[in-house]
Amino acid sequence: MLAIPDDQGGHRVIVRPDTYVEANLYPSHKGAKDSYNLIAGDFDGRLGSGATGWVIIDSGCPDVVVRVDTEAGGGNPPFKVLDSGGPEPGLKSIDWWGPWRCTPDFSGVIWDRWIFRHLYATGSEGGMGWDMTCALGAEFTVIGVSGSYRSSARMLPTSSWRTPSANRQAPSSSTGAIPNTTRLDSTPTALAQLTI
Asked: Whole-prediction pTM value?
């Protein structure tokens, strides 16, 4: 993903089905208006891997020990990786730790205008979520595609989340959402368990 050469969009990252022990991934560039980038698991082998199945991103990273960095200060401090104490298998329930990189000074907005297909994330409480942190209010759209199900997701302030409904129309653009689209889901818990 760091090899994406520019912000013109239309780039594809194809991943062979397997389990990848990775965390805090990010691309070098956003997609472009009308030219989204794609990260896709080669679910049925037709994209060149010859393998079938899901791409599983396990951000539990058992060889990594992560703790809240209480010395960093602030209302929601970042994490720190310890040099010793491992292995530490299982769920990492630490703020800012997940499959996609996001910290108080690095926004998930880098994923703007990306399409996600046939990916499954596990091992962290954040799941496939994007936090705008230092880019709050920035334009942001991702699209999740799995089989024939297509949906566009727009990250909304927590106060605008409502009762779960897979077919709920997004609120009007006055709330910052894209009109006439559907959300992948409408509860933070469900979003954290999102399979795309």
From this structure: 0.71
